[in-house]
Design a protein that fits this description.
Helix content is 49%, strand content 18%. The chain contains 21 helices and 23 strands.
């Protein structure tokens, strides 16, 4: 009994000990799991906070929070989180003599196939031992973290001075304060936890890097790798935020020629060469002597670029732009062919009226770029290769914007009207018809002539609306004159851009709607326009001529038409430009030009019209040359339809009606002397 009881008692003691050990292990495991969860939660919150501020947060706060959570979890003397140039730690600072390059863990510290490693200095490889020695630690846990690419202020990739091979590390120095971690399974768990955290940090790093790459790509031109417009504005905002500096817009103006000659691939090659040369000029020491500080180049579109020069006043900016252009005008060689670029530069500087009080970098950069664009347009129009922005240029731009925005309302609100200028035969002195001329009574800008608003409408694609309006008004007037027994032709000016495949159908529909014979409609195209776009315009012109409409070449003598070219066009009339007719009274050369055009027109079987007839002497000379028709202030100024009808009635009352049947032509009695008023017909 005693022996058996002893045996039973011993067995119970063993069982009790086993149960206690199991319970203790389970409790320790639960504590470790709880600690692991707290650590993972702290890491997750730190990464989530960084993700919420990504793009504006450099990640240091998150790295410090992660380092402190790991130090508490591992009871470590020091924890280091090093990713790219970012180095944060919890615990005592690193030794003062630790060089940046020493922060990079050697390859031997990361065992293949493992997310984290544990090393003792006495048993580690030589490279790892040396690495641990500078940290003054005998035991270390280490896990690799992917590192992001680094960019400078302009978005260029920069080499990291801290982390090589795009690698960062999480280091746990002396976990357990130098005491050995018990048990292999426990060590594996600790390393697994560290590897999990490193992967979480690595995932956030990769997301940050991807976002940085996307931001960079969004602000870079893919062809030249220069900044694009949005990237340039951001970079320029930093350079001019002190209220000083300048922006220049540079146009090489040759890419279209290369595209037409060698193809678009060569055109892209030329743009790349131009970008490289501009970038070199901006980075040269010679440029730095003109204006201190960095210069940033960007590609805006085509072969147009922008440059920012910080810290300069307007005169210095202008001199710098002229010097820059001298370096850019050298020929660009594409496929062995040198192309000389007619480089133009528009410059706008801060610190001038309208910008002197502006210190918001983003607003200032945007306004400088806009002004430089305007100055570049002025350089194109004025033939001066380098132009600085002037307030008058801004007024023209504002006026142009008012025209662009105001055209639609002008049609619907009745601000757009049509005036008519009569044409008469020189020999028979008969009123043959009228030319329809658009007039715009702008509510803010006042009375506008076509010379101002037609080029704007052509550039913005609104010219078709003007053409339809004038055509409809003119045919309605012609119908009214027919109803009165007056057979007057009406001439409508066309932009070559309107001559698409649908335009002849539009004209046919308008003629049918107003019941006007096609021969009473003359459509005028300028010589310069049809010279440039003759292949585009020719099919539509032929269809319009087949409808029965008469076609005229306007402003003849100012374009580039050859006799052979004019012979190919299906035209009935040639109109001599008023600049030659106005000069007939003083310039013998103009008389010779007019006589040559009259003879050439008649040789081709065309009716010849002289515009700008203002004096009896010029009318007499034109009649003697055999010119067919006159138009100008000597006959009449352009006038509204109602005034034209009163003018015709006055001619009829004065005996100007034909003696033939009622409804015949109206005769014109020429005045003597010179027409009063401003020179030139509109």
């Amino acid at each position: 009994m005693t022996v058996n009881a002893l045996v039973i008692t011993s067995g119970g003691l063993v069982a009790t000990v086993v149960l206690v050990l199991v319970a203790t292990g389970l409790h320790a495991a639960r504590r470790r799991r709880s600690s692991d969860l707290r650590t993972l939660g702290a890491v997750g919150r730190a990464l989530a906070a960084h993700a919420g501020r990504r793009g504006t947060d450099d990640g240091r706060a998150a790295a410090r929070a992660i380092a402190e959570a790991l130090r508490l979890r591992y009871d470590a003397r020091r924890v280091v989180v090093a990713v790219a140039t970012l180095v944060e730690l919890a615990g005592p600072p690193l030794p003062d003599d630790l060089r940046a390059v020493d922060l990079v863990a050697p390859e031997e510290a990361f065992r293949p196939g493992r997310g984290a490693s544990r090393w003792h200095r006495r048993s580690a490889p030589a490279a790892v031992r040396a690495w641990m020695r500078v940290r003054r630690t005998a035991e270390i846990l280490v896990a690799p973290v992917a590192a992001p690419e680094l960019y400078d202020a302009a978005g260029a990739v920069q080499p990291s001075e801290v982390v090589r091979s795009r690698r960062g590390v999480i280091e746990i120095h002396e976990p357990g304060r130098g005491r050995r971690l018990p048990g292999r399974s426990t060590v594996r768990g600790e390393l697994a936890l560290l590897a999990t955290i490193a992967r979480q940090v690595g995932a956030e790093v990769e997301n940050t890097r991807l976002e940085a790459r996307l931001r960079r790509d969004a602000h870079r031109d893919p062809l030249t790798d220069l900044l694009n417009r949005s990237g340039f504005l951001q970079a320029a905002a930093r350079e001019v935020r002190d209220g000083r500096g300048a922006v220049a817009v540079v146009s090489f103006g040759i890419v279209d020629q290369v595209n037409d000659t060698l193809g678009h691939a060569s055109g892209e090659r030329l743009v790349t060469l131009a970008a490289r040369r501009l970038d070199e000029v901006c980075a040269s020491s010679r440029a730095a002597t003109t204006a201190s500080g960095a210069r940033l180049a960007a590609r805006l579109e085509g072969d147009t670029f922008a440059v920012v020069v910080p810290g300069v006043d307007p005169p210095t900016a202008h001199r710098g732009a002229e010097e820059m252009r001298e370096h850019l005008v050298r020929p660009l060689v594409v496929e062995g062919i040198p192309f000389e670029a007619p480089v133009l530069v528009g410059v706008a500087a801060a610190g001038v009226p309208g910008l002197a009080g502006e210190h918001d970098g983003h607003v200032l950069a945007s306004r400088l770029l806009s002004r430089a664009d305007i100055a570049l347009s002025a350089a194109r129009e004025g033939g001066v290769p380098v132009r600085c922005y002037e307030p008058s240029m801004g007024e023209r731009a504002d006026r142009r914007l008012a025209l662009i925005r105001g055209f639609g309302p002008a049609v619907t609100d009745g601000h757009l009207r049509v005036h008519y200028q009569p044409t008469v035969s020189l020999e028979g002195r008969i009123v043959l018809g009228v030319e329809a001329l658009a007039r715009w009574e702008h509510p803010e800008l006042g009375a506008l002539l076509p010379d101002e608003f037609v080029p704007v409408l052509e550039a913005t694609g609104q010219i078709g609306g003007l053409t339809e309006f004038v055509l409809d008004e003119s045919l309605a007037a012609a119908r009214g004159w027919l109803d009165r027994g007056l057979r007057l032709s009406v001439a409508v000016n066309l932009s070559v851009g309107s001559l698409d495949d649908d335009f002849p159908d539009l004209v046919a529909a308008a003629l049918a709607r107003h019941d006007v014979p096609a021969e009473l409609l003359t459509l005028e195209v300028t010589e310069s326009g049809v010279s440039v776009e003759r292949e585009h315009a020719l099919p539509a012109l032929r269809r319009l001529h087949a409808l029965g409409c008469r076609l005229a070449v306007d402003d003849f003598g100012t374009g580039q038409s050859s006799l052979a070219h004019l012979r190919r066009l299906p035209v009935d009339t040639v109109k001599i430009d008023k600049s030659f007719v106005l000069g007939m009274g003083t310039e013998s050369g103009d008389v010779a030009v007019v006589r040559a055009i009259v003879e050439m027109g008649h040789t081709l079987g065309l009716t010849v019209v002289a515009e700008g007839v203002e004096s009896a002497a010029v009318r007499t000379a034109l009649t003697e040359m055999g010119c067919d028709v006159a138009q100008g202030y000597l006959v009449s100024r352009p006038m509204p339809a109602g005034s034209l009808e009163r003018w015709l009635d006055a001619l009829i009352d004065a005996g100007g009606a034909s003696a033939r049947a009622e409804g015949g032509p109206v005769r014109w009695v020429p005045p003597s002397g010179t027409a009063p008023g401003t020179t030139g017909a509109a």
